[in-house]
């Protein structure tokens, strides 16, 4: 047995445990879900083969399109906001100051907390009459009582701000690592040539951040399309169904209405949407590079 064969065997042995777990817990459930989508399937048993009826039902399901509209709204509003705030925080964190470590830790800590903790804190802050935010507004002389989680528009504001506070620290760290890869000599040379701070930012900093920005935007779009837990725990999709995302609708269809076959079809509908969105992002990115 030569050296090349030994490397292949050793590599295979190292990859085998992961490959088995990936097949069992990822590939098999995906194939099983596709299989279930062609059946009328309750939470207990398979009932009847229905072919493409579940997919046809999905296309005419107003609740599905409403949930998809809510999710798209969340993606469109939260993604650019998240990216801009993360960039601003990274620029501040990149300054040389003895307080910068504390600043970074302050904004990164929420990203390591669980969604249940974040949601409980959000409810505590946003509840009417006794909530921390409304109490602060009363101290400022504002007599009105905003119902942050009972009003459709305020509920969206609450969810988006909570999500940003929870997750912006991770994107900030990505930007910060990219900023620290930019050589100080480039900035010094630009300053010696008489470049202003705005010229340095737009001509040096932003171009260096372009690759990491593409990654952050792609990850953020996919993550926002899969939003579920914080909305379920904070508003439960309310008021009414005005903040219900597509993942929550799939969850309710499968486990509340006991219609796993239709829920599987909805899941694959979302999967197709994510594939299309990802391909569009790749296409747009490639065209800009050309």
Write a concise keyword list for the protein shown above.
290 residues; globular; two-stranded antiparallel ribbon
Describe the structure.
The model has no long low-confidence stretch (mean pLDDT 89). 74% of the residues lie in helices and 2% in strands. Strands 1-2 form a two-stranded antiparallel ribbon. Strand 1 (39-41) and strand 2 (46-49) form a beta hairpin. Helix 3 (62-93) packs across helix 11 and helix 9 runs antiparallel to helix 12. The protein is mainly α. The chain has a single domain, classed as MetI-like (MetI-like fold, Orthogonal Bundle).
Task: Give the CATH H-level superfamily.
Answer: MetI-like
Q: Give the overall shape, derived from the CA principal axes.
A: globular
- Biggest sheet strand order reads 1-2
How many separate domains? 1
Q: Can you identify the CATH class?
A: Mainly Alpha
The largest β sheet comes out as: 2 strands, antiparallel
Helix content: over 70%
Proportion of beta-strand residues: under 5%
Average pLDDT over all residues: 89
Cα-to-Cα separation, first versus last residue: 47 Å
Radius of gyration: 24 Å
Number of helices: 12
Tell me the number of strands: 2
Q: CATH topology, anyone?
A: MetI-like fold
